[in-house]
Design goal:
By secondary structure, the chain is an all-alpha fold. The protein contains six helices and no strands.
């Protein structure tokens, strides 16, 4: 049983690697088509509250107050995680989840001290015998 589940796990991991290698590197969310933006432009221009908010958001930092209070935000050296790194993380998380479920199932079923012994089973204390008989 353990060998079969190990084979299945290896096959799932190999399939995930093949799927990740063939995945296009465009990212998870495609860009908006230019014709959609052109169709939304008249509706956005007719909304005066949005125009006011966009003017407030278009403020360029670096004035007297920002320099006086040193309110600059340095740009990060790295761009962050790309799509392949996130998908690899999700595959690893899936494998860990499967192992955790298997471990929880083993804990739920309990121990059987005579599982791998043949012939003489050896000495068992009365407490362990009672625990096994009651199903804990």
């Amino acid at each position: 049983m353990a060998r079969q589940s190990a084979r299945v796990l290896c096959l799932v991991a190999a399939a995930a690697v093949v799927a990740l290698q063939s995945w296009p590197s465009t990212g998870f969310v495609p860009g908006v088509a230019p014709d959609v933006l052109a169709a939304q432009a008249p509706a956005l221009a007719a909304w005066p509250e949005l125009a006011d908010a966009s003017l407030l958001l278009a403020r360029v930092p670096g004035g007297k107050f920002e320099k006086m209070k040193d309110l600059t935000v340095p740009a990060p050296a790295e761009d962050g995680f790309d799509a392949s790194q996130i998908s690899f993380l999700l595959v690893i998380a899936g494998v860990v989840f499967v192992l955790a479920v298997s471990f929880a199932r083993d804990l739920n079923e309990g121990q059987n001290p005579t599982k791998f012994k043949e012939g003489k089973t050896g000495y068992m204390t009365p407490l362990i015998k009672r625990v096994i008989e009651q199903g804990f």
